[in-house]
Backbone:
């Protein structure tokens, strides 16, 4: 009997949880846009999370702000521009390419090119060493050593 | 011996860069508001909900906008500094009670003292978002024409007040 009640409780509990998981806004298209923008924005309280991932209050507020602005018919770019105006480029997970971020974007490639150049020089120097011709004295010395072995 | 020089050099450069990185504060972001007009708002005051406050009310004065809340722990840290500054009557401090319950905010001021000329009440954090607030307390220094000249993130220390905020306030008041 107990088991029956328990299973009945469990059976009724799950639909309740499923209800709670429903998105806040009924409009799935709008919600997808909010989500997409939220994934591009950094949560400023917990700096290594996007506002889509974060449950910090500020992140929730910014998501609501995004949703409202989209409802008012603003474009995705207008929303991100609004955030950048207030929080700076830092709010973007993908920083824009400009003077001050040039090193950030291209620094790794510079390091790669530098490393490749160093490797190339090193290999060429090694090849030069191998190709170096022996002088006649060295030939004789080598021959003498080889003769000793016999 | 020579072949160790290059790795050692690279290592030293790396240590220098990491060392510089350690001294930086990742919480302190450059504010995009510096030298821009303070965003406009018009919201109820904390003490009297029938009265409102707008930044344009302060035209012609240099003033501080200090974002605080009763739930904010580091606000307690800076509060004595603000009370001291208010007593010297150098510059008006306007409070912005951010995402707070009205009675909690009022209770907090009663308990710890009220350094503010007045406090505006930002119940849902709208004004906070407009000012790019991400960590309370934050303080904006606004000049006579309503332009934000400096932003201080985190609690104001006596040192920051003495060395950065007050010199700027005096300079702006003279202008």
Residues:
């Amino acid at each position: 009997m107990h088991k029956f009640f328990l299973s009945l409780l469990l059976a009724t509990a799950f639909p309740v949880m499923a209800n709670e998981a429903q998105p806040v806004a009924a409009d799935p298209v709008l919600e997808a846009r909010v989500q997409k923008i939220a994934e591009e924005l950094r949560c400023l309280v917990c700096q290594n999370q996007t506002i889509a991932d974060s449950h910090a209050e500020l992140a929730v507020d910014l998501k609501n702000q995004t949703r409202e602005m989209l409802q008012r018919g603003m474009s995705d770019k207008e929303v991100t521009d609004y955030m950048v105006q207030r929080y700076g480029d830092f709010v973007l997970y993908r920083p824009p390419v400009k003077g001050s971020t040039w090193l950030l974007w291209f620094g790794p490639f510079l390091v790669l090119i530098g490393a490749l150049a160093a490797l190339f020089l090193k290999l060429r120097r090694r090849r030069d060493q191998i190709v170096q011709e022996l002088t006649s004295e060295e030939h004789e010395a080598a021959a003498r050593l080889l003769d000793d072995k016999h | 011996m020579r072949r160790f020089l290059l790795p050692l050099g690279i290592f030293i450069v790396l240590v220098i860069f990491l060392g510089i990185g350690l001294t930086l504060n990742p919480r302190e972001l450059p504010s995009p508001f510096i030298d821009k007009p303070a965003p406009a708002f018009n919201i109820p005051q904390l003490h009297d909900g029938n009265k409102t406050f707008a930044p344009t009310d302060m035209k012609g004065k240099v003033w501080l906008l200090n974002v605080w809340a009763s739930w904010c722990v580091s606000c307690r840290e800076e509060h004595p500094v603000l009370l001291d500054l208010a007593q010297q009557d150098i510059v008006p401090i306007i409070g912005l009670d951010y995402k707070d319950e009205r009675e909690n905010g009022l209770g907090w001021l009663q308990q710890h003292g009220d350094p503010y000329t007045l406090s505006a009440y930002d119940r849902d954090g709208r004004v906070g978002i407009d000012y790019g607030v991400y960590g309370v307390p934050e303080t904006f220094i606004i000049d006579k024409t309503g332009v934000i000249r400096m932003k201080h993130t985190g609690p104001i220390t006596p040192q920051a007040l003495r060395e950065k905020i007050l010199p700027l306030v005096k300079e702006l008041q003279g202008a």
In short: Residues 73 and 136 of chain B are 9 Å apart (CA to CA). The interface with chain A takes residues 26-27, 29-33, 99, 124-125, 128-132, 134-135 of chain B (CB under 8 Å).
